């Protein structure tokens, strides 16, 4: 009886005066939500009732669930992390909002044609979105371009072009706790006096139309517009809510901002929403007329920043001339922030010009750029990495000067995943089996999985875990046969590599191992291979497909080895492949992967991990014991040492006959006979421009894979290792991560847990 359920939509009514009611605002340019129907039924405790009701209507619930489009408003781990965090914040009863952009088109649909990636528009809203509600009563103006005027009454940003931000709200239910939070996504609309159809004014259409279009953007100016569009609308909304006299009111009464940081906590998910810092300063100084020092103190105490990458090319740097054109007042504010920041550094470190250069928000030389990570660090009271090893690299290498100046500002918050979607929803057989052994409370407290350790030697439990895995593999094999027309043996090892295609994630090393296994015909253990989908990234995809074409059609290999590239990898496909996986590939070069969350999903679902000591793999090995993962290759200190000595790919090629054979086959056109030179750029990169040292770890990787094959032939020993991994996965719940954010960064006390009884 759905109508009998009552939900408290956050925010609940603020308590009486004298008690500070804090709201959490999670700002992210990506929310990779996937499908909503099944997740909502699980969190409301209605899945069985709905299944029965649909059955009574003569329909099939699984077919209905497959019709729903993925909300693909992200392109990888950062966006999916944001989605997991929303689930955990609601489940923990935090008064929290997710704020982002309602892309008209999601991440592109990937098609593989003749082995090449082809991008198609993801028109995910073509049939509408039943989970969202437009809120035109909260529509807000966002300004671009214009000029700055210094008047007697203060500084004004005038002659701007206006875009309207229309909010769409999506409910985010907690797990069985009578709480529903809100994700508010902004959509761009033209003002009423602005006729898009008749628009022929240069620049004006450009200011509005691209915002309506796509997450799959091109051009720096469009991306900066999107980033500012989100933060400008969001901060207006936050301040409107802060000022409101009572719940649901749009009337402003509060004009004193002293309590603002106690009632508002804003988390910046990477640097994409960094313009929120100068925007809040603009509001405080130009509009609310606060003195600069007071405004800056409030701003710093309000913001916290999560860093997601150590790769220099991935850290945002905006050209000064672009910011000056698009957001002239914000550039002035950033300059002022930087001047005061550098004055402080110069006071502490007199005559240290090089330190000033390293710590400046403005990078000189060539095109002047704003370093957005530096802006986030200076403008926040807390900075965190997303795994222990990553946070250490952030402190000791990437932002060493800043960490030396304010060591207390830098923290670690190891990422996590929501067990509701990544176990209950995607692997009900395993979830039920666990509940039979240790009860159902682990869904809210994943640390209880440690109770499974006492069943490691239980023969019945070992057989049941293996049976669930086999059922998942059979189901996925049927899906592959239907969708990809490839028949695979469900008894073979499903060796899965799902990542964004990037050189540091080293899909190429996996590919070289496949070629090596192929050359050792017949391979020692049968396997299936899956991988998900810039010029090099597309060449890597083509190479994987070319190798797959040769391997899959070789009669000598037969069904012993199959290579399948899963096109258009997305949340709903992950929910199918992860429960069916035997071996999870986490093989990035040590020191390059911030954390990873796919590694956690595979671990929780009973896959074993082959990986380097990178990202969260390090903590997974700590929790499960390194002997229960297949760890290989260089550690961070080894990579550093090799960088000092110099990495020479040719030496490995000359020394390792199997590596030489694999490379020679790729270079000679063995896998591309119609175009022998097709992969020359890939080979050239591996020899001369490989920052991620594939050849250096190749030998250790191949030897480690031999250990994997050997253990897989012993089903009982393999499954016991699987159980040890599941029992050690409790740390990697996003509930634990959010509790740490609440305690250490937001300084928020969690409400007492509550549950609802479902009639």
TrEMBL record:
InterPro entries: Glycg_phsphrylas (IPR011833), Glyco_trans_35 (IPR000811), Pyridoxal_P_attach_site (IPR035090). One of its GO terms (biological process) is glycogen catabolic process. One of its GO terms (cellular component) is cytoplasm. Gene3D superfamilies: Glycogen Phosphorylase B. Its cofactor is pyridoxal 5'-phosphate. It comes from the Eukaryota. Its EC number is 2.4.1.1. PROSITE patterns: PHOSPHORYLASE. Homodimer; enzymatically active. Interacts with PPP1R3B; recruits the phosphatase PP1 which dephosphorylates and inactivates PYGL/glycogen phosphorylase. Belongs to the glycogen phosphorylase family. Allosteric enzyme that catalyzes the rate-limiting step in glycogen catabolism, the phosphorolytic cleavage of glycogen to produce glucose-1-phosphate, and plays a central role in maintaining cellular and organismal glucose homeostasis. This is Alpha-1,4 glucan phosphorylase. It comes from Otus sunia. The lineage of its organism: Eukaryota, Metazoa, Chordata, Craniata, Vertebrata.
